[in-house]
Amino acid sequence: MNHSYDYVIVGAGSAGCVLANRLSADASVRVLVLEAGGWDRDPLIHIPLGWGKILQGRLHDWDYFCEPEDNVNGRKVECARGKIVGGSSSTNAMAYVRGNPADYDGWAQSGLDGWSYAHALPYFQKQETWEGGGDDYRGDSGPLGTQFCRYRDPLVEAFAAAGQAAGFGWTEDYNGAQQAGFGRLQMTIRNGRRCSGATAYLRPVLRRQNLTVEVEALTTRDHFEGAAATGVDYVKEGQSHTVRAEREVILAGGVINTPQLLMLSGIGDAAELKAHDIPVQTALPGVGKNLRDHVSVILMYQRREPGPFHRNMRADRIVRDLGRAYFFGTGFASDVPGGVVAFLKSNPDLALPDLQYLFTAAPLGAWPYFKPFKQPFTDGFATRLVMLQPESRGTVSLASADPAAHPRIWQNFLAHDTDWRTLRAGVRIARDIAAQSPLAPFIAKEILPGSDKVSDDAIDETIRNTAITVHHPLGTCRMGAEDDEMVVVDAELRVRGTERLRVVDASVMPTLVRGNINAAVVMIAEKAADIIAGHDVLAPCG
């Protein structure tokens, strides 16, 4: 391979795939992408139903765990991050959620004028081909295929009806004019297969002669000449390599790996760097700080009679359906057992939703069965409530100066009383929905927390024992106004105090959006590509 490129992109996750596609569209520039994981060849990645096995088995994953924390009873909560071409878009649950317009307007109000919802919307439209066609909110010609979840089960419709019976509204498109209320879940699925950053953006352009992708290549350090980033070191198959970037180094390794690489390269809190004998290149105390994530608690129910998921998981049926999904994009395994999502308020006085409810028409524990050789599982379903705007913030820090060592991840779960109050309210709202008549034919009993867990103390016990992340971490290299010393990148995603170095991934997001974050990451990368290439950014809507 060459030892010099115009752009070196570190990470082939959602953002890295977008950048690789858009920057290499100019045949005069040479683009290198370095990915620590391998190619996304596992069939389970591309079969939507395979997502559950990927998560449970921590397949194609960095195998990160958070540090033990008292508020979750000393548990080391898992922090799943994709280590594969496509990054976490190759391993996530494929939900397509942009967040609330107010989230982005909040960014603008903090000093990021070009990141309001009006500025973000054209890039949301640019990224997708929505099955319903383009309109004022949706795109019709982008690389990312998006559609409604097509899973069929009367239980799903009953959950939606229960939401209406509980007094909550309905939205036809939570990514459109109205987020709040119950609505049909939208997915990054195209033709019955996962539509990841890799399949949408990277694979279609791999034949470009000016694009090189190196997999199983761990980037270990950025190089500098003065303040200017000039290249990176990486390790592949036990061999060390150095590659030069003539124009820019772009870090797209994600919310954990990007701050780790910056610190290994001498960019971060000076005291922490010195503690690991790393020479200070640029003192930026905000690197690794401001870790924010959505915290989740699940309510589980035993189903009165086995449903479609249970029937289709019989070994002979699921083997057939996995094959149909992989080769033809059809059948039971070409979607996930869900279909309804809700964005609700824990308190009616709030202006915006602070809870997300994800409905799963399947138990957490399931397996292929075939009597008498393997007994079936007990059928059930779950409501996962997600706290969208937690007050608690954590950190990512170095465990050592060894690039192969996992960094330390402190989520600081539930450090604020408001977070506890929000989750308690969320549990009670979920129970109110479950108590509505449309769900009565389906619920045999509440398994978790259990119908006897009704007091604040009992609910808090469940939260301590079961609360987890829903894998939406962000903010560890946040962008912001110039006068904020904890800001890491400016509004054009340039690392402060450096030249020719940018960060383009979830770590730059200053605050949590109200919903899953993959769509927002792709939006950021689409806009970043225009900025980096020197193109005019898309005009704001409205």
The biggest sheet amounts to: 7 strands, mixed
Whole-Å distance between the termini?
47 Å
- DSSP strand tally: 25
Please give the CATH class of the largest domain. Alpha Beta
Low-confidence stretches: none
Radius of gyration: 23 Å
- In CATH, the architecture of the largest domain is 3-Layer(bba) Sandwich
According to CATH, the homologous superfamily of the largest domain is FAD/NAD(P)-binding domain
What class would the helix/strand composition place it in? alpha/beta
Characterize the quaternary organization of these chains: single chain
Topology:
Elements: E1 4-10, H1 14-23, E2 31-34, H2 43-46, H3 51-57, E3 64-65, E4 78-79, H4 101-109, H5 117-127, E5 128-130, E6 144-148, H6 154-165, E7 181-184, E8 186-187, E9 189-190, E10 193-194, H7 197-202, E11 211-214, E12 217-225, E13 228-236, E14 239-251, H8 257-264, E15 267-268, H9 270-275, E16 282-283, E17 295-303, H10 308-312, H11 315-328, E18 340-344, E19 355-360, E20 380-387, E21 395-397, E22 408-410, H12 417-434, E23 443-448, H13 456-466, E24 468-469, E25 501-503, H14 518-533
Parallel strand pairs: 1-2, 1-14, 2-11, 5-6, 14-25, 15-16
Antiparallel strand pairs: 3-4, 6-8, 7-18, 9-10, 12-13, 13-14, 17-20, 17-23, 17-24, 18-19, 19-20, 21-22
